[in-house]
Amino acid sequence: MIGSGMIKFFSAILVAGITLTLISFIGNKAIIAQELEKDAVPIEVIAKVKTEPKQVKTTNNEEVAIETAEEAPASLEELIASADLKKGAKLSKKCAACHSFNEGGKHKIGPNLWNIVGSKAATKDGFKYSKALISFDGEWNHASLNEFILKPKKFISGTKMGYAGMKKIEDRAALIAWMQTQSE
Ligand code: HEC
Fold first, then answer.
1. Nearest alpha-carbon partner for 149 in 76, 86, 84, 82
2. Which residues, in sequence order, are CB contacts of 113 under 8 Å at separation 6+?
3. Please, are residues 141 and 117 in contact by the beta-carbon 8 Å criterion?
4. Which of 47, 59, 130, 178 is most enclosed, with most CB atoms within 10 A?
5. How far does residue 49's CA lie from ligand 1's centre (Å)?
6. What's the number of domains the chain is made of?
């Protein structure tokens, strides 16, 4: 009888112990959750503080106008007007495998490009153009050359010009400025 009484006594202590441990564990979790909830507020505040300077600027129209004028990238025309022709000549080497640029130059894989700026597309005698370039029916001016050299196949879908494109607008502007010198 004493034995079973002792077992009951000790198991009561054991159950109490486990219960206490559980309670303190849940309590800790609750505290962590509370702490997280508290932290969420200051983060929002930080985010607000960070976006505020921009909002302040937009309320001052004059200030914004000055800033955008300074930051605006140069236009294609400005870049062509101020282009380094030597740089353009160097870049033309990327085209030279397929194009000659000199007067009376031979057609290669692509047509001779003497006098190309300002001329109608697909009109060089003796070159067999793709249907795509013929039906483009446009003129090679600064804007169209810029688009074509950027991504030939995007600008004239179906062109047989096998050139991926020149990414930098500064490079295209320098090349176009130099191409313009290859004319009468
Ligand atoms: C792998 C060969 C190849 C390279 C490299 C190449 N082209 Fe061409 N290009 C062609 C071919 C082929 C055509 C004719 C496309 C057609 O008929 O669809 C052409 C057409 C053109 C035309 C239109 C000519 C016209 O008479 O209407 C221009 C302008 C031109 N290329 C410029 C360039 C420039 C600038 C570069 C260098 C950045 C270049 N190409 C690089 C093969 C090439």
1. 76
2. 95, 99, 100, 101, 105, 179, 182
3. yes
4. 178
5. 53
6. 2
Which residue range is the domain that position 137 belongs to?
76-181
Joined tokens for residue 141: 């001016």
Here the tokens at position 46 are: 């930080």
The best mutation among 87, 95, 100 to test binding of ligand 1, ranked by most ligand atoms within 8 Å of the C-beta, falls on 95
Same structural domain, 151 and 98: yes
Which residue has the least CA distance to atom 41 on ligand 1? 95
The residue whose CB lies within 8 Å of the most ligand 1 atoms, and thus the one to mutate among 90, 91, 98, is 98
Whether residue 95 has its Cβ less than 6 Å from ligand 1: yes
What is this structure's pTM?
0.69
Q: Please give the distance, rounded to the nearest whole angstrom, from the Cα atom of residue 133 to the centre of ligand 1.
A: 10
- CATH at residue 137: 1.10.760.10
Query: 117 CB less than 6 Å from ligand 1?
Result: no
pLDDT averages per 10-residue partition of the chain, 184 residues: 70 78 71 55 44 47 56 90 98 98 98 98 98 98 98 98 98 98 96
